[in-house]
Amino acid sequence: MVSLQTKDGYSVAVVGAGLVGERLVSELRRRRFPLRELRVLARSSRRAILDGEEFEIGVAEPGAFEGVDFAFFAGTEGEKGAAVQLAREAIDRGATVIDNGSDFRLDPRVPLVVPEVNAGALEGHEGLIANPNCSTIQMVVTLAPLARRFGLRKVVVSTYQAVSGAGRGGVEALQSGAGEAFPKPIAGNAIPLIGSVGEDGYTSEERKMREESRKILSLPDLPVYATAVRIPVHTGHSESVYVELEREAEPGEVLSAFGEAPGISFSGDPDDFPTPLEAAGEPGTFVGRVRVEGDRVSYWCVADNLLKGAATNAVQIAETLVGARVR
Predict the structure, then answer these.
(1) Does the active-site annotation cover 234?
(2) Does 237 participate in catalysis according to the annotation?
(3) Which CATH superfamily groups domain 10-131+309-322?
(4) Is the pTM value of this prediction over 0.85?
């Protein structure tokens, strides 16, 4: 693990200058992460404004990670992506890598971490830590208190995911009504297809939610049935979650579990429900519309997919490693 906070702070690199990279910069500043230096790297050098701050963006190449303590990867996934090509180079130069992509999430050697849920998984990491999928993060934050108190037998979830989850191209498709970010027009529509469809009929997004949730919750056989839908909302993923518990629960017990859980905002007022509009720009996960019938619980949860679903969670991982106080 990285040692506790140094007097002068840490040298941090953010790889990627897209929506998530910009949010990483803003979260590092907003949460007052102890920075000595902040580098932004991308495929080509240029000047860019990120969250109102001008950066001289450097080229993401092995030598750019010399002296870096933390490297946040926010860019392209796959064999041509920055993390696959450069994560090991950064680690070999002494950096701890926190990767927002999917390339390493299910690698048994790589911790997949949501700090409110499984911070202990960071113990003994080998320099590479994976940030989960955006829709997975907010769901496991809400499942964890139920798992601890009542146990979980089955999870059924339908997601309503914002276009910003598809990057700048997704946002442009909503704004212009054109573009190739989605298989069908997104304006005024709902598209029940996120990612590629496998032989089992589930999309890659739906499989991510199942497999990642099992790993984070340490429940390798947990049945998770997901349907992922893209909707014409700029920012903020919503989820309708149905859970079967291992024992019956009283409504008050479930409300208490949500109300006391870290990372969850929950008023308990049945008329007070969260929406993406209120969640956008906020770092937490919001819960409402809770219904309890014996061992069955249904609820609604919302989170900013670029913050808790990506940048905030990544910075929280780094805060956990250095022992910084969450702000």
Answers:
(1) no
(2) yes
(3) NAD(P)-binding Rossmann-like Domain (3.40.50.720)
(4) yes
